Amino acid sequence: MHFLSLSIAPNELTVTKKDDSQNIAEKKQFTFNDFNLATTPQLLVKEIQTSFTDFEGAIFQEIPANFYALNTKVSLLNGSLEQFIKLFSELLNCPILTMQEAKNATDLSTAFSKKAQEITWTLDYFGYTPGKEEYSVESLLTIGNGFMGLRGTLPEMKISNDSYPATYIAGLYNTAESTVAGQIVENEDFVNTPNSQYISIKVEGNKNWLCINTSSLQQLHRRLNLKTGLFSSEMIIEDEQKNQLKISAYKIVNMKKMNNYSLKYIIEPLNFSKKITLKTEADGSVYNFNVERYRNLTNKHFHITNKQADKDLVALEVKTNESNITVRQSSKIHGDFFTKDEINTQIFEDKIEQTVAFMGTQNKQYSIEKHVQVQASIAEKSWDTPSQMALSFNEEFAESKAAWQELWDSSDIQVSGDMMSQKLLRIHTYHLLVSASPFNNTELDVSITARGLHGEAYRGHIFWDEIFILPFYIMHFPETAKQLLMYRYNRLNKAKENALESHYEGAMFPWQSGLDGSEDTQKLHLNPLNGEWGEDHSVLQRHVSLAIAYNVWLYWNNANDETFIKEYGAEMLLEIANFWRSAATYDESTKRYFIDKVMGPDEFHEAYPNSTESGLKNNAYTNLMVVWLFEEIETVLALLNTQEQTELMKKTGITQEKINEMKKIRQGLTIEVDKEGIIAQYEGYFKLKEIDWAAAKEKYGNIYRMDRILKADGKSPDDYKVSKQADTLMLFYNLNKEKIDEILNDLGYELPPDYLEKNLMYYLERTSHGSTLSRIVHAQLAENVAFHDLSWNLYQEALYSDYRDIQGGTTAEGIHTGVMAATIYVTLTTYAGVDIKEQLLTITPNLPKIWTDMTFNLNHKGIHYQLTMTKKNLNIIASKDVHVMIKEQTYSLKAAEPTTINY
Question: Are the C-beta atoms of 671 and 736 separated by less than 8 Å?
Answer without folding.
Answer: no
